[in-house]
Amino acid sequence: MFTGIVEELGEVTAVEKLGDSSRFRLRGPVVTEGARHGDSIAVNGVCLTVVENGDGEFTADVMEETLKRSSLGALDVGSRVNLERPMAVGGRLGGHIVQGHVDGTGAVVARTPSENWEIVKVSLPAELSRYVVEKGSITVDGVSLTVVDAGPDYFTISLIPTTLALTTLGLKQPGDPVNLEVDVIAKYVERLLGARGQEDPK
Questions:
Q1: Which of these ranges, 90-104, 117-131, 143-157, has the smallest mean pLDDT?
Q2: I want to staple 4 with a disulfide (CB 3.0 to 4.6 A). Which of 81, 98, 133, 197 is the partner?
Q3: Is 171 exposed, middle or buried (CB count within 10 Å of its CB: 0-12, 13-18, 19+)?
Q4: Rounded to an integer, what distance in angstroms lies between the CA atom of residue 143 and that of residue 83?
Q5: Distances, alpha carbon 71 to alpha carbons 81, 118, 125, 159, 178, in Å
Q6: Stated pTM of the model
Q7: Do residues 96 and 131 make contact, with C-beta atoms less than 8 angstroms apart?
Q8: pLDDT digit string (tens) for 79-117?
Q9: Which residues of 40-67 are buried (b: 16+ CB within 10 A; e: fewer)?
């Protein structure tokens, strides 16, 4: 489990195409410290498994399903990525519950700078809109954020200077894709209420 608090702005150093999958090598001295084969690291909000680790870099295999459902397939050598290690037991839940299971992708629609922050409008797949509410939580490229405004096919977020400086969201331009993970609690509530509505009334 992750919390959406990015620990490090990493970089893709190699991409190996393997037919229906890809192997990425990523630089991240902070998140690789103490990492072992089989450990998890979130890359732009996608939970990946460490294959090899050394010299501040790690490799991870990305299957076709993940490439299709996320924006990782658009990464190339030199791409910057948000990196986060799983939350340790007893650690602080600084953001919200993040699984690292991307629900879909959106795209930056517009950026509106202000004196001390920036409002960013992001497109939202129709099938995810019911899970996004004003002042609720959403994960964008692995960053835990609060929804400012929620529309039928978009939402807006307010980015503080720290987020702009230390994550990829400070670099994204209109048209750039972003990974989205909605609040898992909303999905479970929907499933439970739906199952309850289908119960035999006897």
A1: 90-104
A2: 98
A3: exposed
A4: 10
A5: 11, 23, 14, 21, 6
A6: 0.90
A7: no
A8: 999 999 998 777 777 778 888 999 999 999 999 998 889
A9: bbbbbbbbbebeebeeebbbbebeeebb
